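Standup, Tuesday
Yesterday: got the pipeline producing structure tokens again.
Today: sanity-check two examples.
Blockers: none.

Example 1:
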Amino acid sequence: MTAPSTPRTAEDLVSLGLRDHWYALCPSTDVRAGELTRLVRAGEQLVLWRDAAGTVHVQEDRCPHRGARLSLGVHMGDRLACNYHGVQVDADGVVVSVPGSPGCSLEGRRALRTFPAAEHAGAVFAWFGLDEPDDEGPPPLRLPEPIAGGDWEHFLCYVEWDCPYLYSLDNLLDPMHGAFLHRNSHTMSGGRREAQFQIRDTDTGFVFEKTDQRDVNFDWVEWTDTGLQAVTLDIPYPDTAGPGGSFTIVATLTAINATQHAGFFWRCRKVTGWERDSWRFLYKHRLEARHWRVLEQDRAMAEVMPADAWQRENLYQHDIALVRMRRKLKAEAARQAETLSERGGNRGRTAAATAR
């Protein structure tokens, strides 16, 4: 098996994303039948493709022969062929043919790193583990309720921004900016511009909420980690926005590299039947453009944040959710980095003993 390119330091794991987690990679429509899609996510070089049945596969974009990009190769239905020397690899990462040297030792080997993948809510997800998954596979992908199916309807808004994903995560965990940055929004123009906050722990994360205002503006946010890190929040909607009550946003962020990220924002309402049809019509013809304007305000702010923003900030009571989230990420990153270091040391000792 090829050695994974997993980040090995705690700093890298924070900036590129913890391992042993599911990450959204791209909208499902970006991976088209018969084509190869090249992506960089969480610092990993990836190739995405669909087999003849339409099932999506996510693999390292590296031919096990000489390291050429498989994304420059040929889609053969149930396998990929490297364009450099024709080496063919299947969806499990097994080399099934070496046309230039039939019967060589590379044939039959599982030599390509393959990431467990799933599709839900219009997006492709993959599991990035510290180890290769065992025969049972990784833990199942657990989605927040509004995008898990049932009596909810949603639209996916996908973005790629030129800033660390952590800056967008800070923004999502900061309800107070709604009353300032988005004060001219049709949904966030009301309410007080001062507040007190509290944190409530949950089984999968925490809720950060105003203690003196509810259902007026961006008044609460929930951060969850179920193997997929996600943020859920509600924005009150006026009656003119149609049926379904408050407008719910589910967001998850995936680093591309240390300075760029992909953002997935699902716009959700709990509606069925004719209410679903009414909501979909209103969203596409009246509301969607307004939501993109709000996202653009966030992008413009995040992309010009200085690289040393965390090192030079001065936090106050409104920022306690940021502190809680950062502590959780750093603690888990330190644990994972220690595990990787120990494994690296053990491999080194094993190699030295073998050499003797």
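Example 2:
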Amino acid sequence: MQTLIKKVGPTKVEIDSTVLDVKDYKGIKPGSDVVVFKAKSGGYKLALNMGVENRETDYEIVGGFHYSLVPKDFVARNNISDKRAKKLRGINEFSIWTQEHRPTCSPKGMSYIKKYDVWIDIYMCNNEHEKYGTSAAGLHFLAGGNSYGRINPNGNEDLLYKDFEAIAKQHGKRLITWDEFITAARGVKEFSSAGNDDNGVTKHHPDFISKYGIEQATGHNWIWSEKIDDELAVRLGGSRGYGVSAGSRASHWGYSVWSSGWGVGCRFACDSLNPVKKSRK
């Protein structure tokens, strides 16, 4: 029988008629990844997710979610409706996972895109990914130097496509496809980029959050997509200075995988552990 964890408020989830509130647990704050534990003696509780592999002997991890940076007063804006905004406030409804419904990699900081049965990183890949994972709040973008108004002391302007591929593989993830990106990034303010509001830190930017809670989805850093062939790849979303040409359908085709750039980073994708069987039409 599949476990069901349901969001019932900005800070609350329900499981087996038990309501759990992140406010009742010290240390859990916006930007945290949270796990739901079941005690062997019965009952459920929440805890900070320090890695699904680090299980306490007296508890069983049954699932979890991302307690996002989206404030409780977040309302309809740009291409996001009030109904959709409600799903993103506080706990990101699309980040809820269970042992049956989850990505093959660590589920920390990921959002589920039902159309493609795929999980996408909520945040841009950061330069401390080996410690915090590829999707975490409040960290510096992996790519981009300390310039143009960015605070990025450990930025790297020389990362190639193969370097991003290696990082994705290290974390059990892969590069996002063009189709996946278009769907995952919908809801942002189209034909616009962050400009000086981008300081190279993973954060909540209300104009550039998608319908799935993907933060800084467009108009901050170009991200690499899958390859066209062995030599060429696609850049998606637009950079902070790309202006009216940035958005969920912004793309530059034919870039050499041997090139690097100040404004090119990445966010990753991961397939589902138990793929949804598509019915034949």
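Quick observation on example 2: The radius of gyration is 18 Å. Residues 5 and 170 are 29 Å apart (CA to CA).
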